[in-house]
Specification:
CATH class of the largest domain: Alpha Beta
Helix content: 25-40%
Shape: globular
CATH topology of the largest domain: D-Amino Acid Oxidase, Chain A, domain 2
Distance between the termini: 13 Å
Strand content: 15-25%
Number of strands: 18
């Protein structure tokens, strides 16, 4: 992995899913690239999504068929080749209350939705409530005319970012988290990181800082006006009440949809869409946010599933939207790319599903001809190769957890058995997360804090299992000179 000495063709600020993909595509085009983030990789909007890779059914009533088609193409590429272990199919139930006309309208929409996907990964249809209960036993059947069934996909967003950063680093991209850009001038950027202050010489800069995009723009031009606005989305995780074979997506007003979906052995519900005017660093889940999430979930789920004392974890994220007069819920999810007076290219907004295409749009705005002429190729991310057989000593649920998150890279984690006697012991008895994942996160995935490990390298936090004892043990591994970090080199 390259350090930050020398000259770079491109510096990317912000290592969420879009920034990390910009760095990866630029490296594939032959550019010398540096990638930095003021916090951890993917610790902003990218860790706080609804975890969906989807075609965007709600965009059909808006008439945006091109966006739906693009989403489908990306969903197919991620499922079939690019991130096969990190993106997996998920069926959705769409409850249809009311008239026969509403059911017929949904059926027509589902047919068009599948047609735009080329009828690939697109199983759909209408079913009765009795059959719907075989998919989601806790679904409230009262008042439902029918349910639509739709196939889309979901992902572990944090692991997808880590895989993308890993791929970039393997192509020679210099990467650094907890490294803040404190100044920008023509041909250089000034950084402040764990090792102190440094200056990076770079021909061009991409600003992919997400909710902080305007803050970074002001480093280049202190007088620039805001170019985006923020919307807060809140999610809650609960224990899975039973075996769910599908997710629920229910319209709750306008084009807004409330989700309840199985994800990483928990039930994920949300999301809100409310304007946010505060400091992005201060975004929090409030009681009113929880009131809204639970009220909307209660349209589909019974009270015993939605008891507040069952909450495992809550998180809030910020969407970056273009300025406009429409509400945040109705605002377009298209990305916006601008160029500053010193040539910095800033990208704001967009969707997790289409992050690769957004990265390509950014590259086409750069001055380097190699970037402008680069074409998107479905190169698999680390882990998307063939899986080895499960060793008999590794428990099946542990193995399923490992191959989902690391895919063919699981062979690296298996090697920890020869170094650490506790490598395949569970970090917490209630989860299939093992200590090899902690060691790997520290040694090879740039984890520097306990939160990096429990929130983004593993699923301990969202499962509600990052208690004080677990956090203390992981903290000792990070801090001890005899820990995994002390063995590097």
């Amino acid at each position: 992995m390259r350090d930050f000495d020398g000259d770079f063709d491109l510096l990317v600020i912000g290592a969420g899913i879009i920034g990390s993909r910009v760095a990866l595509e630029a490296a594939q085009a032959g550019l010398e690239v540096a990638l930095v983030d003021a916090s951890d990789f993917g610790s902003g909007t990218s860790q706080s999504s609804s975890k969906l890779i989807h075609g965007g059914l709600r965009y059909l009533p808006m008439g945006d068929l091109a966006l739906v088609r693009e989403n489908h193409l990306e969903r197919r590429a991620l499922l079939d080749k690019v991130a096969r272990n990190l993106v997996w199919p998920l069926d959705f139930l769409i409850p249809v209350p009311g008239s026969v006309f509403a059911a017929a309208e949904l059926w027509a929409g589902l047919l068009l939705y599948s047609a735009l996907s080329g009828f690939r990964h697109s199983r759909n249809g209408l079913i009765g409530t009795k059959r719907a209960l075989t998919f989601v036993p806790e679904l409230k059947p009262g008042g439902l005319r029918a349910c639509g069934v739709l196939q889309d996909a979901q992902t572990n967003d944090s692991r997808l970012v880590v895989a993308t950063v890993t791929a970039a680093a393997r192509l020679g991209v210099a990467v650094s988290n907890y490294t803040r850009v404190v100044g920008i001038e023509k041909g250089a950027a000034h950084l402040q990181g764990p090792a102190g202050a440094t200056t990076v010489r770079c021909k061009q800069v991409v600003n992919a800082a997400g909710p902080w995009v305007d803050e970074v723009r002001r480093l280049e031009d202190p007088s620039c006006k805001p170019g985006s606005r923020l919307s807060k989305g809140v999610h809650v995780t609960l224990p899975m009440p039973s075996e769910w074979r599908a997710a629920i997506a229910r319209q709750v007003g306008g084009s807004r949809v409330a989700f309840a979906l199985p994800w990483e052995d928990v039930l994920l519900i949300g999301t809100t869409d409310t304007p946010y005017d505060g400091d992005p660093n201060d975004v929090r889940v409030t009681e009113s946010d929880l009131d809204q999430v639970f009220a909307e979930a209660s349209l589909s789920l019974p009270d015993e599933v939605l008891k507040r004392d069952r909450i495992l974890y809550t998180f809030a994220g910020l969407r970056v939207l273009e300025l406009g007069s429409s509400t945040t819920a109705e605002a377009p999810r298209e990305h916006v790319i601008t160029e500053g007076p010193l040539g910095m290219v800033s990208v704001a907004g967009g969707k997790l599903t289409t992050h690769r295409r957004i990265a390509m749009d950014v590259l086409r705005r750069l001055s380097d001809e190699r970037a402008r002429h680069h074409r998107l190729v479905d190169v698999p991310l680390p882990g998307a190769g063939e899986l080895p057989p499960r060793p008999v000593e590794v428990e099946p649920d542990v193995w399923d957890n490992l191959v989902r998150h690391y895919g063919s890279e699981v062979t690296t984690l298996l090697a920890y058995r020869h170094t650490y006697s506790d490598a395949f012991e569970r970090v917490h008895p209630a989860a299939p997360v093992v200590w090899a994942q902690v060691y790997h996160g520290i040694l090879h995935e740039w984890a520097q804090t306990v939160d990096d490990v429990v929130r983004r390298r593993t699923t301990l936090a969202v499962r509600g299992l990052a208690n004080e004892e677990v956090r203390a043990k992981i903290g000792r591994v990070i801090a001890s000179p005899n820990s995994a970090r002390g063995l590097v080199g």
